[in-house]
Amino acid sequence: MRDLLRQSMRWAILISLVTALLAMVLTLVSSSFLNGLPWQGGLLVVLLIVLIGVFFDMLGIAATAAQERPFHAMASKKVAGATQAVGIIRKADQFANFCNDVVGDISGIVSGAAGFAVAAALVFSMDLPESNRFLVEAVLVGIISAITVGGKAIGKSVAIRYANELIFQIGRIFYFFEKRFHIRVFNVKTKKKRKRKRGVLRAPRTD
């Protein structure tokens, strides 16, 4: 129990730092893109951020729904990506936490902030009165929220039905990075069966 709590605490601290860093980077990048774009381009950027959040949410659900057993036979045949898929499934809690909570929540926050920026650009380009700005912002935020929730609903259905296929494709991506750049994310330890030592049969002791 202590080891589990210790590992959970380490992961919580690490993922919190990663979340803060990613949130700052994505906010700066999206702000720099939106400053030089018209509202149409800004809207495309917002939709792209929403789609990234939906995609990663789908991967997180797939990791928790995938079955490990089919990949063992593939790994024994040395199929590229099978071992990495096993690693994803064994670390499904951390993988889902990163995909759903880190990337998903950051995408939601950044897309909401970017939506307000796009609404302001739209109001300015159309020369609308300031009183209409709140209406435009409300409509845009409503559209972004509807796309996010609807996309995640579709993504969850796809993730649950095709969990193994999705995780296998992600495993192949990790395999590529591992072989090409020597970046190993998941360290899968195989369980070796211990061989029983054959004892020598001895005659019963007689007095």
From TrEMBL:
Protein name in the entry: CNNM transmembrane domain-containing protein
**Which parts of the chain span the membrane according to its record?**
12-33, 39-66, 102-122, 134-154
List UniProt keywords, sorted A-Z. Membrane, Transmembrane, Transmembrane helix
What species was this sequence derived from?
A: Desmospora activa DSM 45169
Look up keyword Transmembrane helix and say if it applies.
yes
